Amino acid sequence: MPADWRDFFALTKPKVMRLVVFTALCGLLAAPGSIHPVIGFTAILCIALAAGGAGALNMWWEADIDAKMKRTQGRPLPRGTIKPTDARDFGLLLSGMSVMVMGLAVHWLAAGFLAFSVFFYVVIYTMWLKPRTPQNIVIGGAAGAFPPLIGWIAVTGEVTWMPVLLFAIIFMWTPPHFWALALWVKPDYAAANIPMMPNAAGEVSTRRQSLVYSALLLPLSITPWLIGGTGAIYGISALILSGIFLALTVPVGLRRSVDGDGMKPEKKLFAYSILYLFVLFGALVLDRVLAQAGVIA
Ligand code: HEM
Ligand SMILES: CC(C)=CCC/C(C)=C/CC/C(C)=C/COP(=O)(O)OP(=O)(O)O
């Protein structure tokens, strides 16, 4: 069957990237100052297309790995509906064009960070770290943490504490987000010979480490409030959301055997991790918009 637009769309990992784009949009909307709506829209479009291009390059590089894992077998490259060179060219074109447009139309600092994110995800994470070390997603997770910082810089043109904190929050969130899933798809990664933490260091160690990251995420997530970068709407939301995150990580982190329950606590934690980031960044924007409108301090 020949490739159609749906196959190319699937290469951009649209489900994962909608949260990437949402956090970028929130970074842009929460930043102090103003941006022309057309320029703001262009910035978000560039981040979305660059992230999609990076996803396509990841799938091009990992076609053989994806073919070995149940979760990823249905992707266009393992199914053979897209030629590998087409996927590669599509990814290069999307990310290259997005970086250029970001630089020319929005800001070259934002474009520089965007190019670095693509490089970090495709080269540092996908090609270098992922097949080599169980710390792959800890270090590589930085790529997915850049979008709100890029959205922020698109408005302000400079790196300050607030966008760095937003970066740090996603960086700290990534291990419990991903390892919850990695615990129940361990056989997939074993089949593909990828040293994800549960495969390389064992389940008990992965669970403990997830708990450490979730525990650190709680104080980190309220730091924007503590340093006066946000108001109480964000601060209290962060406290509640991160408290629930930690409470859901505790049963995952402390259990030693799985007792045939279909890994329910791990699946619950993974699903909540996604909701968490959507609501946390939504609260940040609400807080800032109300402050700018003079409704709150
Ligand atoms: C290195 C870091 C990360 C790794 C290894 C990772 C891994 C994964 C994996 C394997 C899935 C299952 C997706 C699928 O089956 O296609 C997933 C789902 C998801 N991830 Fe992550 N993730 C990471 C970082 C992020 C970041 C930074 C975000 C957004 C800010 C994100 C958002 C999502 C979302 C929204 C889903 C659910 C997709 C759906 O609805 O099926 N992830 N992640
Ligand atoms: C702006 C920009 C470039 C953003 C990049 C965003 C980014 C790095 C998101 C990371 C999320 C992601 C798709 C992880 C999948 O890991 P994986 O590739 O190991 O998962 P897989 O097994 O599903 O392929």
UniProtKB/TrEMBL annotation:
Predominant localisation class: membrane
Localization per Swiss-Prot or TrEMBL: Cell membrane
A matching Pfam family: UbiA
Keywords: Cell membrane, Heme biosynthesis, Membrane, Transferase, Transmembrane, Transmembrane helix
Membrane-spanning intervals of the chain: 40-61, 112-129, 136-155, 161-185, 233-254, 269-286
Broad EC category: transferase
Signal sequence bounds: none
Reactions catalysed according to its record: heme b + (2E,6E)-farnesyl diphosphate + H2O = Fe(II)-heme o + diphosphate
Recorded topology in the membrane: Multi-pass membrane protein
Enzyme Commission number(s) of this protein: 2.5.1.141
UniProt cross-references to InterPro entries, sorted A to Z: Protohaem_IX_farnesylTrfase (IPR006369), UbiA_prenyltransferase (IPR000537), UbiA_prenylTrfase_CS (IPR030470), UbiA_sf (IPR044878)
Pathway annotation from the record: Porphyrin-containing compound metabolism; heme O biosynthesis; heme O from protoheme: step 1/1
Family matches, as NCBIfam families: cyoE_ctaB, PRK04375.1-2
Other comment: Carbon 2 of the heme B porphyrin ring is defined according to the Fischer nomenclature.
The protein's role, per its UniProt record: Converts heme B (protoheme IX) to heme O by substitution of the vinyl group on carbon 2 of heme B porphyrin ring with a hydroxyethyl farnesyl side group.
Family the entry assigns: Belongs to the UbiA prenyltransferase family. Protoheme IX farnesyltransferase subfamily.
Name this polypeptide is given: Protoheme IX farnesyltransferase
Lineage: Bacteria, Pseudomonadati, Pseudomonadota, Alphaproteobacteria, Sphingomonadales
Underlying gene: ctaB
